[in-house]
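From the pipeline queue, job 12 of 40. The input is one protein chain; the requested action is below.

Action: predict structure.
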Amino acid sequence: MPGLAGIISEKPYEGIREELGAMVEVMRHEKFYRGGQYVNRSLGLQIGWISHENSFADCMPLISHDKNIVLIFQGENYLSEDTLTQLRRSGNRVDESNAQYLLNLYYETGDNFFARLNGWFCGILVDLGLRKITLFNDRYGMRRIYFHEGKNEFLFASEAKSLLRVRPGLRAIRADGLAEYLRYGCIVGNKTLFKNISLLPGGASWVFENGATPRRERYFDPSDWDRQPAIAPAEFYERFAMTVSDVFPRYARDSRDVAIAATAGLDTRTIAAALQANGLSLPSYTFGGPYGETLDIQKARQIAAICRRSHEAIKLDHAFFKEFPEFAQKSVYLSDGAHDAFGAHDIYLNRIARHLAPVRLTGKYGSEIVKNRRLIHWISYSSDFFESDLKTFMKGLQPRDRLHRERSLSNTVFEELPWYEYGLLSIEQSQLTLRTPYMDNDLVKLMFQAPPEVRGAGQLQVRYIRETAPELRGLITNMGELGSGGALLGKIRYLFYRALFKTEYYYLFATPHWLTRIDRKLAKLHLEKIVAGREKFEGYRIWIKTHLGDFIRQTLSNPNARYVEFFDQKSVQGMVTRHLAGTHNYLNEINKVLTIELICASLIDQKGAAKPIRSESIGRPAELISAT
């Protein structure tokens, strides 16, 4: 996905420029990617970048008129009205769809520059007068920076594969990181899956002055938001409604095409209400699968009709299953192992979505920020699944809810979202520009002031939709919210749709072994066409048997398979055999083993790694800007 790659070295060495080129090129995954390089030998800085064509950051590098400041920025930024006004009063021309104004913002705000940024981003700021380099990222850490500190050098990149490409000694999986990935579905903290590679913490502004050892500073401390006083419930809604109406339209304005990834839930309905109230209309689309039309598709189409906008359903089809091995490998490779092999459909669907619009406006993380939805869970396994070394690390972990006395918004925003959601986010952003107004600084900061009972009740969005866009309140959500009728009918609807959701979840994902055997006996009835397809469309438990079996069997029975370093091969083979026979459900185990095997092949051994697109096939050749 778009990002940075660089080397800060105390002593430039032969081949350093070739290494930088390799680090950048390994991030070039699509023909619409554009890149460049900036080299400053006197500071020991070698940096390159990759952007989506015509995106916000497709104008790098930014160099001041006096050639004293160089800014290389990747991601997006959403200015508040106060900041916009301040810039324009100073005579600055501001095009919000282009990053050119960021240098003006830096000169206006000085040391407060990083704190005024609002979005997901990473970057390098070079002050040639002070001989200072600052490496920074967004306050949540959603735009990852992987780094490795070597002897007299500091390597960093938005994708771990850039570091692995030029430092073969890093190509090893950490057993403690793998254990967390298996237990939690992600690696927690600033660790990674790879030896001696770490993550830049959120809100970082690490300074390099005359060397490759950074001064680890932060421009943002999450406790600043935690310490805010709570707002009384009656007043809080008014503040929430005003913030949503002010913030959400910012994310729909662009010189490029923007489309809404619409669902049946409250998160995208709230976006639709805010845009409707501001006279903004965007096309929309919804993802689906082979089991008919989900509630998301049905409700999104109805909302689009009310808002007088177009809507399309993007569904998985035969082409996806035919090319599944390629998409599974790309899911693992592009995400640096943070997204599973059974996330292959996310590549396929988002690739199609880009043809409709290069910018995808989504309601992601609304339930986590406005309400109390948790992300990281505890995943159990049979003890004979693992080899002894990994088993030791698995036993040393404990559920995360035991590590916190109480769950808080701070846990969610600064830990769970950047750790757990990054894998899917990296896949989506490899194909298009993803935006969610729910992580706007103004809204998140406000939600830290919400009384616990307000977030717990989960009625903020319901009230906003009813009062702001009454025409949208008549359609019930996929959880039975909104619609007509009183509280009792609403509760009955909620219980019904909740039961529907749980039924699909257990049938498609968490089916116990005994029920799997019953499903096998009733195979001729094709229960998936009856039970599935309303709330969920991903049917990997079934697809393993019907579409993916040959690929999985061949991959995991390979005598040279690398997963045997971590998993008991006999146990894995038995699971695959029983799952394919339809007598047991080992969906999660097969997914994890297949993912680790693909990580080893494409990232560790670098055999069969997804090949980067050659720069000659891209519209504009990579630029090299040298400074001395």
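Job complete. The mean pLDDT is 91.
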